[in-house]
TrEMBL record, chain A:
This is Sarcosine oxidase subunit delta. It comes from the Bacteria. Signal peptide: none annotated. GO terms for molecular function: sarcosine oxidase activity. GO terms for biological process: tetrahydrofolate metabolic process. It comes from Pseudooceanicola sediminis. Gene3D superfamilies: Folate-binding superfamily.
Amino acid sequence: MLLLECPCCGVTAEETEFHGGGEAHVKRAGPSSEDAAFETYLFHRENPKGVHFERWRHVTGCGKWFMAARDTATLEVFGTYSAQTLAPPEDLLKQIRDKRPGFKWRDVQ
Amino acid sequence: MARVCETEGRWSAAESLAQNRVPDCTARLENTAAPTPVPPDFSVLSEMPMKRYSAFAIAREAARHHTGWERAWRSPKPKDRYDVVIVGAGGHGLATAYYLGKNFGITNVAIIEKGWLGGGNTGRNTTIIRSNYLQDDSAAIYEKARSLYEGLSQDLNYNIMFSPRGVIMLAQTEHEVRGYKRTAHANAHQGVTTEYITPERVKELVPIINLHGPRYPVLGGLYQARGGTARHDAVAWGYARACSGMGMDIIQQCEVTGVETGADGNVSGVQTTKGRIGCGKLGIVVAGHSGVLAQMAGFRLPIESVALQALVSEPIKPCMDVVVMANTVHGYMSQSDKGEMVIGGGADGYNNYTQRGSFHHVEETVRSLVETFPMVSRLKMLRQWGGIVDMTGDRSPIISRTPLGNCFINCGWGTGGFKAIPGSGWAMADMMAKGTPGPLAKGFGLDRFREGRFIDESVAAGVAH
């Protein structure tokens, strides 16, 4: 059972209060994009055994979306942050680098 | 008796497997195996002609205190190079190797496994076998698998305890009624024998069911009389023994750490924890860890890995000789030959590789089952475990060539891999031997995502997750 802290309302709760929303920071490829880009946007997903960045929604709480950094092998939650960002915040990345030296997720490292 | 080895100590069975020794119970199970009337062709056996299991062998060994049983498969050191290397010694990987040897005579094959043989999803599923899918491509491969399961004990000379006890998928909403009627019609066209049955017939087949549940009454069901269950570990052990008998090398506790490509873009070998192993062709059949292997090989997959869990109750007297799936309330249950109620639970809602599962899914699953089968409310649950399932966007598998030359992948079976093992191995072996996908595999290529040519079973099959 994961414990997550919602960065919007500040509540820390069990995972049953939230709903996973899949990979974070996916950039939309629109109707005018190449087939390959559209395929990547719709179907290709990061599936790391280790550090992962993903979206969550506080469904039975404030209802807001946010992002989380988590280890998919140990279920350790490194931290949560605002959904209104294009990349994970630097202070969180530093903390992850200390715990998981050499991690790589897309071009984040 | 279905899970004798598991009760006698799941981990001791696992450890003895890692040391290449089948627990004693396998020998005992053999007395129910029907001996094949025609002796198999042993001309393909290159190194170790294995002794056949038979009623005669039981009698012979009984007369000499069971000292003559040999190891079911060899545990060799890896050679420098093989014609074909299969990564993953689960059901699908072993079946691929078996049909490469049996159907195409390719026996210079290594199957490498990072843990122990059959210790991933093959040893963690709920052993259900059915082929009542909606789409033609799915029905074809699952029906091929089901029909191969029927003769597999004889084919492998190993009792896999296939039990065609029937599978019912309950319709508990009007939408499910429509959906299952549609599937029954589709199955009739596909040559898969299923029928839509009334609640009265459901009650007749499953007396312990409560037709008038508090939330969702049973309105009918999709019944496949020739579906059923099999002994999951025995499927892996049987294939492994047959592969080893053909001279193939099964190398356990050997993790792949890198995939090598030559200048021509073809795969030339793999780096492993037991050194480099060269190969002519590479087959990746690693289920939950497909993403990890694909990353090593340098391509991406439309797959996410999540833990799916299951649990079993204490053993009780026989009370249900059908597999029942209740997809709306989300629970499915069958009774093993040993008497445990085998219960499938939900998948986690986020990527993970933990092989554990979560308590709230257990609660949710058991709550649904108590509605449908009130008598289980007083059962104690014995064990709970998880497996890592590889989920694709359309919930159908991938049997495909890859961007690398001579490298093939078989993955994405998600929550329904066990039932497909023989068909999947058959199709994968065909593709690896010929270099192009055959009729069974054709629809399951990676290119279907770009082309929008989905085999959309996520809604069509009415599978709960």
